[in-house]
């Protein structure tokens, strides 16, 4: 029921609901509830989808790790969004995501 109410409010462009969503308020009872780990992984996926600037990845990766996401889950998220965002976005995002995770991808590429 909460989800239905949230969808209706957003579809009607209810100012309070839209503002709540834009502020990232996803508490239980809001109809938009996500746990912090899931929310952080979704936000990383969106960065890939919108081809965000590399500087945007660092804080989002930090937030995902702080929320309990593992490196494997972050890489899994990259693979999960691939069918939707396309090969080019995934290839472009992989080294940026690797850098945000602290991997020296340039050295690995040179050795490869």
Short description:
It contains seven helices and no strands. The N and C termini lie far apart (53 Å).
Walkthrough of the structure:
The protein has helices at residues 2-11, 15-22, 36-49, 55-66, 71-85, 87-100, 105-111. The model has no long low-confidence stretch (mean pLDDT 86). Helix 3 runs antiparallel to helix 4 (55-66), helix 3 packs across helix 5 and helix 4 crosses helix 6. The N and C termini lie far apart (53 Å). Helix content is 71%, strand content 0%. The longest helix has 15 residues, at 71-85. By secondary structure, the protein is mainly alpha-helical. It folds into two domains: 1-33, no CATH class; 35-111, no CATH class. The chain contains seven helices and no strands.
């Amino acid at each position: 029921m909460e989800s239905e109410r949230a969808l209706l409010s957003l579809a009607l462009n209810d100012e309070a609901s839209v503002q709540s969503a834009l502020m990232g308020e996803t508490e239980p009872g809001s109809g938009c509830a996500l746990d912090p780990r899931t929310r952080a992984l979704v936000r990383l996926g969106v960065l890939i989808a919108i081809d965000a600037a590399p500087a945007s990845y660092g804080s989002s990766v930090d937030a995902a790790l702080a929320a309990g996401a593992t490196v494997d889950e972050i890489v899994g998220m990259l693979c999960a969004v691939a069918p939707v965002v396309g090969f080019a976005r995934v290839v472009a995002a992989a080294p940026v995501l690797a850098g945000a995770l602290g991997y020296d991808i340039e050295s690995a590429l040179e050795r490869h």
